[in-house]
Design a protein that fits this description.
Elements: H1 2-28, E1 33-34, E2 45-51, E3 56-61, E4 87-94, H2 95-100, H3 109-116, E5 122-129, E6 138-143, H4 145-157, E7 169-170, E8 179-184, H5 194-204, E9 209-210, H6 216-220
Antiparallel strand pairs: 1-9, 2-3, 2-6, 3-4, 4-5, 5-8, 7-8
């Protein structure tokens, strides 16, 4: 009985130490900036970072001379099928969390546990917009052609693809009329979250970013 009690105490202490250490680094490391100097000041393409208060999306124009996203992320994949959309947002995350938790009230312990410890698969959430309004939660960034090509490659690399090289659409309930889900590579975890993925996207295009961040705050503090 005593051995069991000591083991239980050690387990609780280990969990507490992990949580305290994680929270400490999650609060401190995002303050360490990267790419503070714009090495390529050309302004060929306008992109955005957008947060809903928890999750960060990378938002890009649907059609440019460099890429037409509607060729693979099709208007026919969204409920509205509205081809007048001008922008598309990409957000990577845990598949179970995305599909099973449309509202925070729907969150289950099992879903959170699987996501937190990297035990699940992932999905790419794509959202179409007719226009983008700048705000504290939506920041405009002007980048060069090369930087945008880097971002294109970064986003495309995360999609799983079928035998024809097309993103694999997930037949699932969406959040609205203008979004869709696709199978993606990798696993979400405490250390590699949806915001970590978006932050790394900023790094890929040599824009201001945190050294590492699990939160949207870690990204937006460098822009607001």
């Amino acid at each position: 009985m005593k051995k069991t009690l000591r083991l239980l105490v050690k387990m609780i202490l280990a969990v507490l130490i992990f949580v305290i250490t994680y929270v400490f680094f999650a609060l401190v490391i995002p303050y360490i900036p990267v790419n503070t100097k714009d090495v390529d000041p050309q302004e060929d393409v306008t992109v955005y970072i957008r947060t809903n208060g928890v999750h960060t999306d990378l938002v890009v124009p649907i059609k440019t001379e460099f890429k037409d996203w509607s060729e693979s992320i099709k208007f026919s994949h969204i409920k509205s099928q509205d081809s007048t959309m001008q922008f598309i947002g990409f957000g990577w995350g845990d598949k179970g969390f995305y599909l099973d938790t449309p509202e925070w009230s729907d969150l289950k312990f099992s879903t959170a546990f699987v996501a937190a410890f990297g035990l699940g698969s992932s999905a790419m959430h794509s959202t179409f917009y007719k226009k983008i309004n700048e705000s504290k939660d939506c920041v405009k960034i002007k980048i060069s052609a090369q930087e945008y090509n880097n971002l294109i490659a970064y986003i495309e690399e995360k999609f799983k693809r079928d035998e024809n090289g097309k993103p694999i659409l997930i037949d699932a309930t969406t959040y609205g009329q203008n979004d869709s889900f696709y199978e993606a590579k990798g696993s979400y975890s405490f250390f590699y979250t949806c915001n970590t993925w978006a932050n790394n996207g900023l790094k890929a295009m040599n824009q201001k970013a945190a050294l590492w961040t699990p939160s949207d705050f870690g990204i937006f503090q460098h822009y607001n």
